[in-house]
Structures are given as structure tokens and as C-alpha cells.
Specification:
Number of helices: 13
Strand order of the largest sheet: 3-2-1-6-7
Mean pLDDT: 88
Oligomer: single chain
Shape: flat
Distance between the termini: 82 Å
Radius of gyration: 27 Å
Low-confidence stretches: none
Structural class: alpha+beta
Number of strands: 11
Amino acid sequence: MDLNLKRPLLFFDIESTGLNIVTDSIVELSFVKVFPDTHHETKTWRVCPWDYSAGVQKKMDPKASEVNGIKDEDLVGEKKFIQIVQEVVDWLRDSDLAGFNSAKFDLPMLAEEIERVRAYCVRRLGDPKVSESNKAKAKEMLDSLDVDLHSKLMVDVQTIYHYMEPRNLRAAYRFYCGGEDFENAHTAEADTLATYEVLKGQLEMYQKPDKYHEVALKNDVDFLSGVAGRPRTVDYAGRLLTGPDGEPVISFGKHKGKTARSVYESEPAYFAWIENGEFTMDTKRQFALLKERFDHERKEALSKPLEGDDLSDAVARLKGKFQGGKLF
């Protein structure tokens, strides 16, 4: 069915260096603009993610690269967002917007990139070291960013999908257990029994791989607990994740992606900040248990006599502090 449009509808999708809208950047942006007469136009940009303050290319999060297949070296030499922003705004200017989960991620990320360019231009205009000709360029670019994304209608196809095909327990029960609602929904016992029946129905339905599911479900709790790559969390809020080597990894903020151990070694006050911050009691307890473990391991290491390579390294470091019998 063709869309009934009064003005163009711009479908768009973004690939990025990661999922943090504040710190990550666009590396690929694609537009499909559908016009009221049903014809459409397409434009895709590959973008070099740029840190305007440091003047360097931002790095891809390895997890993002695993998903979108884009690596740092693929982006060297590509245009920065500031070099395509005026063309991007031209595509946006007369359109409403559409995407899949775009209201929560793609649209905020696109708005953030435009605001970064806007802030860069403002800084250039206020910098006495910038030449008048370059200030004129900054003013011209600033004036061209005359688009208000908040004023546009946003059609999120995922929202419609979830509305029309709910992803709740009642919908799951209808899908896996015979097409009927179960009685007394939203009472604890009925919901619990329904969940049990749904899991059994899932195991029966997905016994073999197919073109949509590369791996069949195994009737094994360890396997089922990790379906779809769900990360194993140390705390229930997911502030700490279990890394590939079993080490707890911080999942948020300035230390995102770092092991809790390395953060404790470099900034032990961070653990005190967690203890005094607005975090769940479980999160605070898990950080406290890690602190206790790291302290215990450090004391054990200090009390253990040095042997072998450890002893040789210590002697070498000590010798390096002396020259001609003097400490310097």
C-alpha cells in the first residue's frame, strides 16, 4: 500500500561508534525520502567521527564494529559531519521523519551531531584568534542550520509494531500456547504459571534452526539464560557486567568498558562515589564486595615472599634507583 502523504516523509537510519548519544558519533547515515507522488530518493553518507575539541578521529567501540562491520580504518579520509551537515539539513528541512526505534536513538543522535556543529561555530565566532574570513564561514554555516527537529512529526515503525503486536505475557501466551488468553492475567500465580507454559511452548516451537533463527533452543537452563547474547550482569541494575575473562566491567559513565579492578587501582575514590551515590543497594553491595576482594588480594600479594621473575624484577627496579652507591 502506498503512503498517503501531504509532505515528504524521510526514513533514516544511523550507524555509530557506540550507543552513548553524549559521547559517540555517527559513522553512517542513510536517508530514503518518500514524496507525496510516491517516488523516493536515497542518499547515504559514510562519516568520519570527529572530536571537535581535540581535533582527532573518534574510535569505534569494538562492540559496535561487531554489529555494523565498520572499523576505524574504514573511516579515515571520509568527510566529517560538519562537512555534510548543510546537505543533511537540506534533506531534513521540508520533511517529516520515520525510522525503526529512531525516536529513542537515531533522532537524538542526529540532533546531537547538529548541535555539536552549532556549538563549534559559536566557539569560532567568539575566538579572537580566528580570522574574519573563517568567522564569516562559521556564521554562514550557523545560519544554515535552520532546522527544528522537535517540530517534525516522527513515525517510529517499532512503536507501531509493538503496539499492534504486543510483547507482553498475554501476547506470548496467545502465540505459544494455543491462541487464547489465560485466566486471571496480572495475578501473580496466574502470570507465573503462564510464564512456565510459555517457556515450554518456546522449546517446542524452536527445536530446529531455520532461516530466521540460526540456532535452535536447547532444553538447557545454562543455554537459555544466555539466549540472544544477553550480557551477564554482576548487579541487577546492570552497572557491572561480566567480561569475557570473568572480570567485572563497568557499563556506564566515564569508566564504561573498563574493568572494575583497573578503576579501583587507578581511582579508588570512584568506589566511594558509588557508595554515596544514587544507586541501588544491590549495586553498592557488589562494588563493596569487589573492593573487599581487591584489598584482600593486595594484602596477600604484599605478604607473599618474592620468588623467580617477581624477585628479579624487584631487584632490577631497586638497582635502577642507585648509581655509584647514591640514591637520586
